[in-house]
């Protein structure tokens, strides 16, 4: 199952079509200025398939993202008493 993506403006213009897609089981991501701001899914999707699918989509998206910054510490640094 692929998740379609639409801009906020297109979602506004074609809301009825998006509702039909969502009712048919197709999740829709709404983006504003290129960034995801909402996901439309059916209630059945949330309760039955949603968690596993959402987890898989999140992990896939995280794997594609670049790290936010360099990590210059190690785990042991968290437990040291001195600064």
Summarize the structure in words.
This protein is of the alpha+beta class and 83 residues long. It has a single domain, classed as YefM-like fold. Helices cover 45% and strands 18% of the residues. It has helices at 8-13, 15-23, 43-64, and strands at residues 4-7, 28-32, 35-40. It starts with a strand and ends in a 19-residue tail after the last helix. The mean pLDDT is 85.
Q: Low-confidence spans: pLDDT under 50, at least 5 residues?
A: none
The amount of helix comes to 40-55%
CATH class: Alpha Beta
What CATH architecture label applies? 3-Layer(aba) Sandwich
Question: Can you lay out the helices and strands and say which pair or pack?
Answer:
Blueprint: E1 4-7, H1 8-13, H2 15-23, E2 28-32, E3 35-40, H3 43-64
Parallel strand pairs: 1-2
Antiparallel strand pairs: 2-3
Features:
single chain, 83 residues, alpha+beta, YefM-like fold, 3 strands, 45% helix, 18% strand, elongated
């Amino acid at each position: 199952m692929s998740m379609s993506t639409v801009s906020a403006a297109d979602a506004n213009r074609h809301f009825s079509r998006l509702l039909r897609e969502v009712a048919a089981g197709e999740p829709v991501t709404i983006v504003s200025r290129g960034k995801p701001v909402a996901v439309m899914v059916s209630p059945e999707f949330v309760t039955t398939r949603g968690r596993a699918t959402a987890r898989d989509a999140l992990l896939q998206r995280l794997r594609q993202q670049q790290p936010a910054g360099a990590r210059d510490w190690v785990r042991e640094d968290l437990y040291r008493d001195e600064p």
